[in-house]
Design goal:
Elements (H helix, E strand, L loop, with lengths): L1 H15 L3 E6 L19 E6 L9 E5 L9 H14 L3 E6 L14 H15 L11 E6 L1 H11 L19 E4 L12 H8 L5 H6 L13 E6 L8 H12 L4 E6 L12 H14 L12
Parallel strand pairs: 3-4, 3-5, 5-6, 6-7, 7-8
Antiparallel strand pairs: 1-2, 2-4
Helix pairs in contact: 3-4
């Protein structure tokens, strides 16, 4: 009965043209690196927002909400974002990734990255079912979710999850919004670093989780936006990543607003923050607006 009800809701959403929604477990077997069973309410998932077939452009975004690795701002930096993208014919997947916990994880710092890799793997694995071009699957991350997206985009060559199909874990593109980029003193957001790495991170951890030190020519093209007066995550994070990408010859756009503080997109009209992102996608041929989608 539950499965039938979910299917009915999925089909109804399609018929209404608002995009179907499904909540899907990230893992069908055991959850990697966990020391034991994970309570149902803490299990990692993706919520899929799929445009109707006649409006589906084939582009997809995997969305990582922020929350300093201590909670997930799923509504403001997940649901609202997905709904905006799906209205433009872009499939969107909001990731509920594990929050780092020493008590239940062998290495709490790796759990979010594992979930991020599994999320992009799952989207590509089921891309045909969802009418998605696997070469046009990118990531969108906000605040600490931007850090997770950037970590995924700089550590895609090694799989930290089972990946027998050898599906590429490299995002086609990255969209980072007021992101935490570095774990180094002077740049990092202290709360995010403590939640992810603890009070006394090793030099190796600081290097691994500072995206600006792990770029190369294969790092995905990136769109970054930040407010210069951000009092939570300094905009120097975005500047440092921009400079690192530019040095490696990676296509990158940096949009700095003079004012707005942290979370500024939550206080803007949707078109104000969405349109520049769509233009970035169009310029790089990852998104083609279709006639029915222009309404």
């Amino acid at each position: 009965m539950i499965r039938t009800a979910c299917l009915s809701a999925f089909l109804l959403a399609c018929a209404m043209g608002v995009g179907a929604q499904q909540v899907i477990p990230l893992y069908t077997d055991s959850i990697p690196d966990n020391l034991g069973p994970v309570p149902k309410e803490e299990q990692p998932t993706i919520t899929a927002y799929i445009p109707p077939v006649d409006r589906n452009t084939g582009t997809a975004v995997v969305i990582f909400p922020g929350g300093a690795y201590s909670f997930l701002a799923t509504k403001e930096e997940g649901t609202v974002i997905a709904e905006a993208f799906v209205k433009k014919g872009i499939a969107a997947f909001v990731v509920k990734y594990r929050l780092p916990k020493d008590s239940v994880m062998r290495d709490k710092s790796m759990a979010p990255l594992m979930d991020a890799q599994q999320a992009i793997r799952l989207v590509r694995l089921r891309s045909k079912e969802w009418h998605i071009d696997p070469y046009r699957v990118g990531v969108v991350g906000y605040s600490a979710g931007g850090h997770l997206a950037a970590t995924l985009g700089t550590h895609f060559n090694k799989s930290y999850i089972p990946n027998k199909e050898e599906i590429s874990l490299r995002p086609a593109f990255m969209i980072l919004v007021y992101p935490v980029i570095s774990m180094e003193n002077g740049l990092t957001h202290g709360g995010s670093r403590i939640s992810l790495l603890g009070e006394k991170p090793t030099p190796e951890q600081l290097h691994f989780f500072s995206a600006e030190t792990n770029t190369n020519w294969q790092t995905p093209p990136t769109y970054i936006t930040h407010a210069s007066d951000d009092q939570v995550v300094t905009s120097e994070n975005s500047v440092a990543f921009y400079q690192a990408l530019k040095k490696k010859g990676v296509p990158v756009e940096l949009h700095l607003y003079p004012e707005g503080n942290h979370g500024f997109t939550q206080r803007q009209a949707v078109d104000e923050w969405l349109e520049p992102m769509l233009q970035f996608l169009k310029r790089n041929a990852w998104y083609y607006e279709i006639a029915a989608n222009a309404k």
